[in-house]
Amino acid sequence: MLAPLIWREFKIHSSKALALNHLLGPTSYLVFLGLSISFNFGTVPYQGMAVSYLHFIIPGLIAIQTYQLFATTFSLTRLDISTKMITLIMTSTSFVNYMVAKIAFGMLVSLATSAYLLGLGWVIAGPTEVTPAGLLTMVAGIALGDLLFFSLGLLMGLRIRREDVRDAIFALAGTPALFSSTAFYPMDRVPAPLRLVARLNPISHIADIVRAGYLNASPDPLTCLLLAAYVAAAVGVTYRAVRRFVVR
Amino acid sequence: MASGVARDAVIAENLVKYYGDFKALDGVSLRVERGEVVALLGPNGAGKTTTIGILCGLMSADAGRAFVLGVPSTDKDGVSRLISYAPQETALDYLMSVEDNLKFIGWLRGLRGGRLRERIEWALREFGLLEKRRIPVIALSGGLMRRVQLAGALMLEREVLVLDEPTLGLDPMGKMTVWQMVRERARRGAAVLVATNDMHEAEVLADRIAFLNRGRIVAFDTADRLKALSGSSYLRLRLEPGWEDLVSAPRGARVLGDGWIEVEYREPGEVAEIVASLSGARILDMRLRGPTLDDVFRKLATESETVPEGDGAGVRVVAEVGPPAGG
């Protein structure tokens, strides 16, 4: 019974507003932020190499767009609850199917947006050679990021009813999560007081894994472990919340 | 009825449900037979939606059990394949069009290909939605949203139909259309459970009415037999203005306005006594009426609130409920 749920996700996401959101966000970051900062940074050191800032920031932007799944899942879950769609779905199929359809479509959108970012980056900054192993590493990083932020978005969507609280969470979590990460600059350029936050920030881990794949380097095992632990914890907590929500 | 086929499609046995310390259901038992419409009638907060939620597998009971066509309601997936359910609130995807919503509901609940297209066209036509098919649901009025929701529930031809306040917000013509469709579905063998607090809807639509108050079914019978339970009739009198200065109102009289009062009586001989007690005033008009469901509803609500905890004396006629046949 997944097909109608995936079809519905397609219908929702093919709205002009969401499609534009998926394309314009990464484009703006790459064109306005990436290009302007690259004039000041030129190159950044990465695992003994000097990498152009534009190539450095592309994996960071891919990591950031996985974070978008948090906001999208949060809002759409809340909408499904407030419009009682969730009741309709739960009296027709299982909640697991609902989640699988959402995460599957979310990952599809995420991978498509990542491919778009890579294409746009190569047009602006010139192509780089990504090995199959590197591509696999990138996809793994993106998938883990999607899973993490989908779980958190679903958890918040189930738990938080008030829109002002949701807005406060976006405002309080969003900016620190994005700017105290290694999405935009390497760890040694993160201001010292923020370095601990950056080291614990999952966006840093996603950016580091995707970057390693993109620049044909090996991802740090500790980074991979930490991200996997975050994903496991988020999925576990969300699963419990879902069970409580379903069996009332 | 074919032999071997259980007559009761929906069975609830002594359902108990707590929300924190609040006892929302206090031993609810009922049965809905195939080809029958049962109205679950009760005031707001009586436990109607909770009862339906348990039957549809949306929530668990703290005690008791329920079955739909022999499948326990705890088997949510099993029950979801048997019931066509329209919740009290509008359950539609606001971002999709009317037609896409119907397609989604039908597809999700097992319709495919040509049959799905056929049922969508039927639903759009029967519910007057043909011209609105491409409009996003968010742009519709509340009444039209309700129509789309009911269209989605009735386009499925399931053996059990559960409708929670189905005609809330519909215009009179819309209500009649829905009632006709529901009756037709029951005539073709479906078991229908309708939660409502609209007496008229319950009386027009249902074969039997389960009156739910404060989490208990205090009466369960046909509308006529429930009205007979009342044992009372009513005398309405219109008196000349200023009558209050001339005579005392009869005991238990209700003032209805515009000079009308209403007095409940049990024996025909009481009418003459009531009229005689008002001989000092001028009677302009006089009418008799039998009990309505409103009267029964009011009386049962009052009585059930005075029944002590655990005392079953407030229950008038409750279906005998045993284990599900064939379940």
Describe the structure.
The complex is a heterodimer of chains A (248) and B (327). A two-stranded antiparallel sheet of chain A has the order 1-2. Helix content of chain A is 79%, strand content 3%. In chain A, α1 packs across α5. Chain A has one domain. The two termini of chain A are 23 Å apart. Chain A is mainly alpha-helical and 248 residues long. The radius of gyration of chain A is 18 Å and the shape is globular. Chain B is of the alpha/beta class. Among the domains of chain B are: 164 residues, Rossmann fold, CATH 3.40.50.300; 59 residues, no CATH class. Chain B is built from 11 helices and 14 strands. In chain B, a hairpin with a 2-residue loop joins β1 and β2. Chain B is globular and about 75 Å long. The two termini of chain B are 16 Å apart. Classes of the chains: A mainly alpha (248), B alpha/beta (327). At the A-B interface, α1 and α4 of A face α2 and α3 of B.
Task: Summarize the SSE layout with pairings.
The complex is a heterodimer of chains A (248) and B (327).
Chain A: H1 2-13, H2 16-41, E1 43-46, E2 49-52, H3 53-82, H4 85-90, H5 95-125, H6 132-159, H7 163-179, H8 195-200, H9 202-214, H10 221-246
Helix pairs in contact in A: 1-5, 2-3, 2-5, 3-5, 3-6, 3-9, 5-6, 6-9, 6-10, 9-10
Chain B: E1 8-19, E2 22-33, E3 37-41, H1 48-55, E4 63-68, E5 71-72, H2 76-80, E6 83-86, H3 98-108, H4 113-126, H5 142-154, E7 160-164, H6 172-187, E8 191-196, H7 199-205, E9 208-213, E10 216-221, H8 223-230, E11 233-239, H9 243-246, E12 254-257, E13 260-265, H10 269-277, E14 283-289, H11 293-306
Parallel strand pairs in B: 3-8, 3-9, 6-7, 7-8
Antiparallel strand pairs in B: 1-2, 1-4, 4-5, 9-10, 11-13, 11-14, 12-13
